[in-house]
Amino acid sequence: MKNLLSMEHLTNRELISIILRAEEFERGEQHNLCRSYNVANLFFEPSTRTSTSFEMAERKVGCTVIPFDASFSSALKGESMYDTVKTLEMIGIDAVVIRAKEEAYYNELLEGINVSVINAGDGAGQHPSQSLLDLYTIHKEFGQFDGLNVTIVGDISHSRVAKSNAIALRNLGVNVRFLCPQEWAGDFEAHHSWDGLLEDSDVVMLLRVQHERHENNKNFSKESYHEQYGLTVEREARMKKGSIIMHPAPVNRDVEIASELVECERSRIFDQVRNGVFIRMAILESILKGREINDEVHSKYSI
Ligand code: CP
What we know:
CATH topology of the largest domain: Rossmann fold
Bound molecules: phosphoric acid mono(formamide)ester
Helix content: 25-40%
CATH superfamily of the largest domain: Aspartate/ornithine carbamoyltransferase
Strand content: 5-15%
Strand order of the largest sheet: 2-1-3-4
CATH class of the largest domain: Alpha Beta
Radius of gyration: 20 Å
Structural class: alpha/beta
Mean pLDDT: 95
Largest sheet: 4 strands, parallel
Number of strands: 8
Oligomer: single chain
Shape: globular
CATH architecture of the largest domain: 3-Layer(aba) Sandwich
């Protein structure tokens, strides 16, 4: 794997091997990279979890993290994504982790760039590392995927997490259902009430209402959204035995989920954050190992 751009590009075999490697890292295994790699994290949109979790994972697999402050970079002078990444390549960077507001920004990096690109979120497009950590969280809980019912609730059309998870979960045999107001369904067929969804859901995955991507949200009422689509204390009490609550976070407390449920017994919201470090170690190792093998072939056969 040279890059990680979209869940569409990963086979079930590849994603299961990343999950199993994350499990080994969580048990304390060390990385198997033969040298230290230089990486840079280019976050053109805000992030707490993904940026710090990648940096932690990079350090744990022996990388040198080269600081890059997107808010003080030459991108502000109009430098293109291609020129920015090519510049970092010439400086000696091996891999970049990028978050940007443009969907599929990575298409302009597919030709002419040798640095590995890890997509840390492209607008409302994809968020593959979040999806992989979500899959890892589900796998830790249930040991497999086939036949599980996962209900994804909220701002579906603006959610890169929903799109990445829908692809991966369906490929793995999961029954994925969506619940949201009709105007947020995008290309998905969605339910508009909780009726019949709560009692058989193995996973209720809540999504943040992404006000920053809404053109007009003047009519949005937190109270009525919570009442209609939020996970209330009363709804949580009706959830199936052994089922879990997930949310990629950040959470709008008392909007998507009642504040007192964020750390309830069923909630895996903070576990997801912890799992993210192991998954990102596995992603980085897989990509950097691929570069190592490629370099060996090039030097042995001078190609
Ligand atoms: N879940 C997630 O992507 O969080 P951040 O925006 O804080 O990285």
